[in-house]
Design a protein that fits this description.
Helices cover about 55% and strands about 5% of the residues. It has 18 helices and 6 strands. It has a 3-stranded antiparallel β-sheet with strand order 1-3-2. A 3-stranded antiparallel β-sheet has the order 4-5-6. A hairpin with a 2-residue loop joins strand 4 and strand 5.
């Protein structure tokens, strides 16, 4: 019978810090279980011994291993949890506002207890004025990148960095990023999901469509130390205010390999007007040396669980949509070539196409959702008081000997 080791004992045997030990758990390299009272992490001594003999797991090529202790989000195997709550269940059952409150406070609000998130009038007017000077064809995310700093100048208390103040700022920022965008239709209710829909689609949603939008926001609210979250947390570690933290996240989230990935999915699905076009479109991407957008993820071994739920909701909302048929054909073609499994960006891009949303709606939803995660990580950074400052390994020319 194997014995169980505490985290401290397991880390000592492996010669790593406890934070690295939990990083192994997140990557699926190690398994753990909870003690009977739920307070202690326990590790199988034989599994620890095998890992110790094998040596430390190697990082994926090109990956930079920055480990930060956090109580916010856990990715273990193919499961995603926010503060111990299954994110897939939350996305099915709860609105985005509840998921954000859970990330910020550690407590899930009672059903129906939340109030509509509002942005102060001065911030609303300033944000709208800033967004209005951009060209008419500016994407929603590009408008958000000027809205956030514009709202900041109207908040004289933005450097109050205790949790309640940051949470209050977060509600106003998320609401402002949405409400400062030009309206395309009328929102059906006061939820962030409904208000965002009215800014990216020129018609009212069906109930299944609104459910899909709400689920997308919950699923995208946080994903551990993703690129934009690392940028946001780094800014917070230097005690940047919540608006600046969100601005840092907005800059990083626009990257084609992160929140902007749904734009490439939109382009791929638009290029294949019907399922028969898919082999040509996929082959053209590969011929140009490009990635097939919406496939593969560094932290999941199998299918991204966020894709599974969101794609199912999209199918329920628009089962006869040509975009759904094309998406299915893309998945079949990629699997035929033994390429990686689909991720949430594919479902998000397919959703925007089936609903006829404006160009860039997917990355806008990604950004609004991730405000919750960025500020949850900011709260932790504010409280630790430690600046996040990685060191570089210099590989340039040798020093001049003279």
């Amino acid at each position: 019978m194997t014995t169980q080791l505490t985290a401290a004992e397991a880390a000592r045997r492996l010669g790593v810090k406890p934070a690295t030990l939990y990083a192994y758990v997140s990557r699926g390299t190690l398994s753990r279980r909870r003690s009977a009272d739920g307070r202690t992490s326990l590790f199988d001594s034989e599994e620890i011994e095998r890992l110790a003999r094998r040596g430390r797991p190697r990082r994926p090529a090109g990956a930079l291993d920055i480990t930060v202790e956090s109580q916010i989000t856990q990715i273990s195997g193919d499961r995603l949890r926010y503060r111990g709550h299954d994110a897939i269940v939350l996305a099915r059952d709860r609105p985005f506002e509840d998921a954000a409150e859970l990330l910020w406070t550690g407590t899930l609000p009672g059903p129906g207890r939340g109030q509509a998130w509002r942005v102060p009038q001065a911030a609303l007017e300033t944000g709208r004025a800033a967004a209005a000077v951009l060209p008419p064809d500016a994407r929603p995310l590009e408008r958000m990148q000027v809205i956030a700093p514009a709202m900041a100048v109207t908040d004289p208390l933005r450097l109050q960095l205790d949790r309640p103040a940051v949470a209050a700022a977060g509600r106003a920022i998320a609401a402002g990023l949405v409400d400062c965008l030009p309206p395309l239709s009328d929102p059906g209710d006061d939820t962030i999901a409904s208000r965002l829909w009215a800014r990216v689609c020129d018609r009212r949603p069906s109930r299944p469509e609104l459910r899909a939008m709400s689920a997308a926001l919950v699923l995208l609210a946080d994903h551990e130390l993703a690129v934009s979250t690392l940028a946001a947390r780094t800014a917070a570690s230097a005690r940047a205010d919540p608006y600046a933290v969100v601005s840092a996240g907005l800059g990083a989230v626009s990257g084609a390999l992160h929140g902007g990935a749904s734009l490439a999915v939109e382009a791929m699905l638009a290029a294949a007007r019907e399922p028969g076009d898919v082999p040509r479109v996929v082959a053209d991407l590969l011929r140009r040396g490009e990635r097939i957008p919406g496939f593969g993820h560094s932290v999941y071994r199998g299918e991204d669980p966020r894709f599974t739920l969101l794609s199912g909701l999209v199918r329920q909302a628009a089962p006869e949509s040509p975009a759904v048929a094309v998406t299915d054909a893309v998945i079949a073609e990629v699997r035929r070539k033994s390429l990686p499994e689909p991720n949430v960006d594919l479902a998000l891009g397919a959703f925007t196409m089936t609903a006829g949303m404006t160009h860039g709606a997917g990355e806008a939803a990604f950004a609004v959702a991730r405000v919750a995660g960025w500020l949850a990580h900011a709260m932790e950074a504010y409280e630790t008081g430690k600046i996040l400052r990685p060191r570089a390994s210099y590989t340039g020319p040798a020093a001049d000997g003279g």
